[in-house]
Amino acid sequence: MQFILKPIIRNGLFLFYILLSLTAFLFIFRNKVYHKALLDKTSTQISGFVDQKIAYLTHYTNLKENNRELQNANAQLRKELEKLKSERAESDTLRGPVSNLEFYQTYSFLPVEVINNSVMKEHNYITINKGSRQGIKKGMGVISANGVVGYVLKTSENYSRLMSSLNKDARVTVQIRGDKHFGTLVWDGKDPRYAQLMEIPKYIEVSKGDTIETDGKSGVIPGGIMVGTVAGSKINDITGELDIQVKLKEDFARLRYAQVVFNLQRKEIMEVEKDSVNAQP
Fold first, then answer.
1. How many CA atoms lie less than 13 Å away from 130 in the CB half-sphere?
2. What is the per-residue pLDDT across 107-117, written as a single tens digit (0 to 9) for each?
3. Global pTM?
4. Is beta strand 257-263 parallel, antiparallel or unpaired with respect to 141-144?
5. Which helix (DSSP H) or strand (DSSP E) does residue 47 occupy?
6. CATH number of this structure's domain 64-264, picked from the four choices 3.30.70.20, 2.40.10.350, 1.20.1330.10, 3.40.50.360
7. Band of the pLDDT at 237, cuts 50, 70, 90?
C-alpha cells in the first residue's frame, strides 16, 4: 500500500494540476461549439481508423469461410445456368429438333477444395476434400471456373482422388466454339500451360485465339465450358489431321477450388445406351 501511496503524495501537486486541466478541457469542449465539433471529428477519425483495422483483421481471419461461400455461390449460379439452358431447349423444341444432348440433362454441382495437387509430372493427380459420404462416385467430372479439372478415380468416405487433366492418360471431349467441330483434348506431359486438341480434320479453318469449349456429349461434363484458346496449329504429317495447341485457361499450379459435377439423369442415359447395345443382333 505504501508503494502506491508514496508516488501519489510525492507528485500530489502535479496530479492535481492534471486533474484541473482535464476538468477545464472538459468544460471547454462541452460548452464551446467549435471545440465540441473538433473533439467529435477527432474521435470519429480515431474510431474509424480502429474499426478499419479490426475489419481488415476480421476479413483476413474469415478469408477461408468467405472463399467457401463464394464457391457455394458459384455452384448455385452454374446450376441456374444449366437450368436456363434446359428451359431454352424446351422452347426450341417447339420450333424444331434439338440435337445437343446436353440440353436434356440436369446437373448439380458440389463445391470442393483441392488439398493436394501436382503439375510437373507426366501423370498428375489431384486430391479433394469430399468423398462418397457426399455422393461422389468414380467417373464423375470435376470442373472449375476456368475449365475441366479432371475425373474422379476413386473415393474414400471424405476424400476423392482425381485424374488431373494434366495427365497423359486423360481425355476431354471438346469442340471449337462456333463451327462445333469436336475432338479430343490431351496433354503431352510437357508444359502445364498448354494441351493438344486432336482429331480435327485438316480442312477445318482454325485461327489463333479461337475458343475451345466442352461439347457436353459425354454426359459427365456440361457443354459450353471454356477450357482455353487456340495458340497455334499445324498439319500432322502422319495422321493428316490438325494438331492444335491450346492455351489452357486454368492455371493448375494455383488451383484451389473446384466443383464436382452431378448429372442427375446420367443413370437413365447409361441404361438406355446399355439396352441399345444389348438389343443389337
1. 18
2. 888 999 999 99
3. 0.64
4. antiparallel
5. helix 33-61
6. 2.40.10.350
7. confident
